[in-house]
Amino acid sequence: MEGVPGVGKTFQTTMFMNDWAKGNSNKDIKALVTLDFTELNKKKDEVKSMESLLDDFFNKKNVNVSKVDMKKICFILDGLEKCELPLDFVNNKKVKDLKGKASMDVLLTNLIKGNLLPEAHIWIISQPKGVYKIPSKYINKTVLCQGDAKEEEYLKKVILEEVGQHESDPQLSEIVMFESGGKKPVSPKDLFTNNKSLNSGLSDKSKNVRTVLMKGVPGVGKTFQTKMFMIDWAKGNSNKDIKALVTLDFTELKTKKDEVKSMESLLDDFFNKKNVIVSEDDKKKICFILDGLEKCKLPLDFGKNKEVKDLKEAASMDVLLTNLIKGKLLPEAHIWIISQPKGVDKIPSECINKTVLCQGDAEEEEYLKKVILEEVGQHESDPKLSEIVTFESGEKKPVSLKDLFTNNKSLNSGLSDKSKNVRTVLMKGVPGVGKTFQTTMFMIDWAKGNSNKDIKALVTLDFTELKTKKDEVKSMESLLDDFFNKKNLIYKDDKKKICFIIDGLEKCELPLDFVNNKKVKDLKGKASMDVLLTNLIKGNLLPEAHIWIISQPKGVYKIPSKYINKTVLCQGDATEEKYLKKVILEEVGRHESDPKLSEIVTFETGEKKPVSPKDLFTDNKSLISNLPGLSKNVRTVLMKGVPGVGKTFQTKMFKIDWAKGNSNKDIKALVDLDFTELKRKKDEVKSMESLLDDFFNKKNFVYKDDKKKICFILDCLEKCKLPLDFVKNKEVKDLKEAASMDVLLTNLIKGNLLPEAHIWIISQPKGLDKIPSKYINKTVLCQGDATEEKYLKKVILEEVGRHESDPKLSEIVTFESGEKKPVSLKSLFSYVPGMSKNVRTVLMKGVPGIGKTFQTKMFMIDWAKGNSNKDIKALVTLDFTELNKKKDEVKSMESLLNDFFNKKNFVYKDDKKKICFILDGLEKCELPLDFIKNNEVKDLKEAASMDVLLTNLMKENLLPDARIWIISQPKGLDKIPSEYINKTVVCQETSEQQKKLESCLKNRFLKEITDEKDETSHPNQKTTEHVIRRENGSEEEKSKQDNFRKVNQPSEIFKDVKEEKTRTVLTIGEADIGKSFHMKKFIKEWAKKDDTWSFFTWIRRPFSSQSKPAELLFLIDFSKLNLIKNKNISLFELLNRFFEETKNIIISDYSQLNTVFILDGLNAYQHCLDFENSKTLTDVREPTSVNMLLTNLIRGNLLPEAQIWITSQPPAAEKIPDGFIDRLTEIRGKIVFPEYAACAFTSNTCFLHFVLACP
């Protein structure tokens, strides 16, 4: 019998033994012999006979088995996988005689082979990895031990153990496919789904395809995708028809190229390593993941390899793989092959049903850009010794990289298309002038996305290399594929948007016969290299592509001018940069290569859109509607962002981009001012002109250009200490008019000063209200790579993260179907029976001090760390105490949320539908919460009272997709109707806390009670006895003393009789008779017991140490109750008064625990107990009089499951009516029989009592 670890093999053997022992089955078996290979390993050096081995076994059992019955033994040999004996079935000597001595290994092999005890039964138990230790010919029957889950589930468990930790890895890639020329994402569940991109040779057009090839560039995330697929399958989220995953690596498979084995053997090897069993049927439903095709060294000869269809047929690894891929072996299996582009040609396309592409965040264009930057990016900082210029109307004009393909008047007259972009540009320049530098800068600029964004790929060809291919005949498609394969790149984008950079025209030795060469338009049409190039340049091939041809002057004649649309010249440093730009680049240019950790975005019509530096001052739909007639460019932009997100980085990039002339060319100068610096000048009076002169003087620069075209960068608005009084400050329009700094700034921002200037204001969220919104034309947001959600998580961890290591004193539970079940933080909002989706509103109740705040902090920390509730995008914590203060305010839900996030110095522009509200302290809510009469509000922008907002939030009118967690003490639960609560959970102390309280009480009593050694010598031990006088308060005592039963152990006083529970015991005894002595014996017996059995329910079945509830004992002296007779007090407060332990360890519900109260000295209580007029009390936290509390505890209204032991002198016992006492016991002097009274009694004689009265 084989089975995976923990599946229940031992359970099955136990059931077999029980069934046989009861005589229910296998009656021909006379004895069971259970042996464990772990124990047999220890006897490997012993030499003994089989008879001796059996005698040892039966002697330990104290059993005799006859020689005849020994033949009918059943051996149960467990743990074969742990066997360290050689089990040499071939070379071990034959032994048939039971008395024949041999080693343990020889005995076992002869037993299994049937030489010894051939009539015996043998049941061998093993994990899968051990089954190979015994040849199959010696096994008559193989069975499998399965759990509730199939082998598939165990394999899923193994896979999750292996790769599950990668589930939270960042998703840096995706799987896509190109269908009908369009890109579509492919999810794990759709990986094997058929679609229109299947090869036409696929005969089966059913839903699922068999073989999928995924290709991707190195490092793009192919391994990540396979791990996500494995995790998704193992969690049961997709591909449920697949029964097992088999991951094989071509690198490993090549090490087995010389082995000859069957596919069945290959699979067994794989599953044995996993210690997993997969049935023959399930093997047909396997999914193979074959990784690293590009590293495959096997020939993969699909043409000549023999055909193999039988799983048991042995063949070479190459033959097995080709037959598996072709579908001869396991035709119903799925195969997922992973490869870099350079390996895809190893498998014929007809054997692939579906091809997908693994892409990173960037598409192929972005990968090519990355490759280009790796190749030439180091030259970005090379000194610029040349420039590109053109001569238009005799005037020299510089040509920027982004304008290289822009049309102008210098185009040759033969150009028929006068559109904005030209197709073919020729750049000429003398040797060494810097032509290569210019092409390198063009490539870097394109790769960085700074220019020529319509170009999707750069193809660099050199005429020197092309001449080596002059005799080759190939298509343009093939030429391009060769280029991209060298880059290890797949280019599936539009080849029409390629830019060819063809260098070294002067070295071209091809004829370039533009007249006689045949016309070629088809990319697949084959021709010589000369024909391909001439058709490319003429525009027959790829007419929408761009071509940049570079040549020394002596080569320009090789191409007729009519095929050149634009000619430019590469010259040395002939112009001067603006000095200010040079200064700026010296100051911040080094930051150009800083990692881009943030971006600028705007929310136009609610949708997030990126904002590039060149578009910062461009108008869009997010402009404020009360500014009519705005042109394309806006004047004042406000950028907000949380601390550390990268606002300074963005301003540096803007300055670099402007200084390099890449954007905002209408701006003539940048002036960056910091509000921190400006506040130091609050008392100065100067003009705007003077302020600007001060700035430029610091730059050692004289600015004589038009000051109207300045761009101000005003940073750190949140630190501004100036009043910025936009209402009362005087109006200033003249640059030469002096005023305070506050007046200058307000007039600049309002547009009175320099109305044509641009202003970029940067602020943290908490500074936004310093400038009225009507003076801001455009608002943008600076975001990091992480979303706002991540920043909020950071804030939360800073606020409450220190509590992560706080001791766990409470837990969240739910009582579903009456059974307590723990609720984890990640399942707080999980589905509950009766609901079709995840719950929205959860109510958590808990007594004061139990740890509700601790649980909310743990929830916040767990969410902030990304461990749970990942669909929640933000947490909003509100306290009803604070909300009470806003009862008279009228505001919208959007405003309420903005107030919350502003306090966090945080901008939340994400989906407010995915917020989780944590509403704490419901019991303190003073708002009416009128769910019936309050107006309905659904619009986040609609203003209403706080009460109306809250009721509509809870009723799902506002933010119906949000989550709400309401926290309350029990007294607040009725404030919200139950129909608005989807799930109720309870915060209570942990079982460890309950056990801790039990332990503390035991330690306390053990210290207070006399040491155990004094117990035997105590006078009451010898002179008194404890007897039960009557049961269940049935009759008066009368004269039933002849029926008294002695109490042997103190705990017997609560022993149930005839299945009737004994709850309340009254023990009477004269003063000083020994009641306290017996009570202390009871307490000591409780305090010293172990945790494996229940003390108070000892007559019932024992508990396991894990399931047994805590057992508490409280000793209360009636005399001490006299001190609080006039006070109202709850049972909870009473315990806290007498027991420091219950103060420190709060118990939410004593009814869940086994509790005994010992009420000692009823006779000392100075008040009567009014059982007739006492009202019913059931809440341990409800204050009442001591009399009311005691009567309800004794009657069983309070804690009905608790047990009560009351001690009293006889007269005072009448304070408790008979009907409330289940058992009456007495402590009395011992009855002594004189020696002379001893005699032999017959069964018919009476038993006489001799009572010795002592004076």
DSSP summary, beta strand count: 48
* CATH fourth-tier homologous superfamily of the largest domain: P-loop containing nucleotide triphosphate hydrolases
What fraction of the residues are assigned to beta strands by DSSP?
15-25%
| Distinct helical segment count | 33
Adjacency order of strands in the biggest sheet = 7-6-14-8-13-11-9
List the uncertain runs: 197-206, 409-419, 622-631, 1036-1041, 1098-1106, 1233-1255
Any idea of the CATH topology of the largest domain? Rossmann fold
Instruction: From the alpha carbons, calculate the radius of gyration and give it in angstroms.
Output: 45 Å
Please tell me the overall pLDDT.
84
The N- and C-terminal alpha carbons lie at a distance of 78 Å
CATH class bucket of the largest domain = Alpha Beta
Helix content: 10-25%
Total number of domains? 6
> Structural class per helix/strand content?
alpha/beta
**Biggest sheet layout:** 7 strands, mixed
CATH architecture of the largest domain: 3-Layer(aba) Sandwich
Keywords: Leucine-rich repeat, Repeat
InterPro entries: NACHT_NTPase, NLR, P-loop_NTPase
Biased composition (Basic and acidic residues): 1023-1045
Region (Disordered): 1011-1045
Would you give an account of this structure?
There is one protein chain. By secondary structure, this protein is an alpha/beta fold. It folds into six domains: 130 residues, no CATH class; 195 residues, 3-Layer(aba) Sandwich (Rossmann fold), CATH 3.40.50; 197 residues, Rossmann fold (3-Layer(aba) Sandwich), CATH 3.40.50; 198 residues, Rossmann fold, CATH 3.40.50; 202 residues, 3-Layer(aba) Sandwich (Rossmann fold); 229 residues, Rossmann fold, CATH 3.40.50.300. The chain is built from 33 helices and 48 strands. The C terminus is likely disordered. It comes from Xiphophorus maculatus (Southern platyfish).
